[in-house]
Prior knowledge:
The complex is a heterodimer.
Chain A: E1 4-11, H1 15-23, H2 25-31, E2 35-37, E3 45-50, E4 54-64, E5 68-74, E6 86-95, E7 101-108, H3 111-117, H4 123-136
Antiparallel strand pairs in A: 1-7, 2-3, 3-4, 4-5, 5-6, 6-7
Helix pairs in contact in A: 1-2
Chain B: H1 2-8, E1 11-12, H2 13-17, H3 24-36, E2 40-45, E3 48-53, H4 56-86
Antiparallel strand pairs in B: 1-3, 2-3
Amino acid sequence: MIDAIERTLELGAAPDRVWKALTDANEITAWFGDSAELEPRLGAEGWFGWESHGRFAVRIEALELETRLAWRWAREADTPLDQTRSTLVEWTLIPRPDGGTTLKLEESGFGRERDREENVGGWKHELGHLSDHLAST
Amino acid sequence: MIARMSAEGPLSIKQLAAPLPISRQAVTKHLDILQAAGLVRVQKAGRERLHFLDSSPLKEVEDWLEPYAREWDQRLSRLQRHLEDRS
């Protein structure tokens, strides 16, 4: 995907440990935001908070224990998810032979904001056509 | 095609089509789409039309996503430190 951020992290910690850091609200605040309220359950809604930016609504959209987690979060603070643009953050945990974890992150969906800002000239749309076209020839 | 234009510079449709197992018509269609997307530009050289790559739209996306990517890099290194502290 073109409008996505992708990162891969090689961690010494085991998948269950990494999973906890990603899903436990207390642990999330140790590395992500200043405050968090979110239950590790499919469909759960909560928020991530930053003292300087406000609270960002979040909803868990995929959850496979110690394997995969996806949450959608609002691009604007203090606004319900269905009233603002949002991006999807997807985490994938892959166990390493040494007991550690390969952690993949992808955040996608920025494109809609781009479209709205109309500073693109429709190239993204066209690239979509291109890939459709390439797939059909 | 994109890779070749990137490596070899401006090319005609004939040159672009030559090594590909598709017709010149198909190449033309591809180029039209790339052109509409702003990724390919055309310059005339005599009677030939040469196609060259303009990657600035892609660079634009990269620049635009850069601050968000940097934020993630910071969060991920905090996550890494957090996990190292506790394990």
